Amino acid sequence: MCLHNLFSKEVLAEIYPQLIQFRLERQLSLEELQAATHLNLKILKRVEKGKCLPFSCYRRLLKFYGKKMHIVFVDI
User: Fold this and answer.
1) How far from 72 is each of 6, 21, 26, CA to CA, in Å?
2) Does domain 3-65 have CATH number 1.10.260?
């Protein structure tokens, strides 16, 4: 599942910059993040451009950064 299918553009516009901020706060290059998380470097580059991120990769990044996210589904 891709995050673009799960979240609105407004929510995604806040998620991706936070992922970049988390990386920069730890003073990691993309290559160092790739080595630490074992995620594909190509995927990490797409993340920083605000492109589609598979949900499993997003969960792995959040776990690495020590963050959690709760998703609530509501009727509209």
Assistant:
1) 11, 24, 29
2) yes
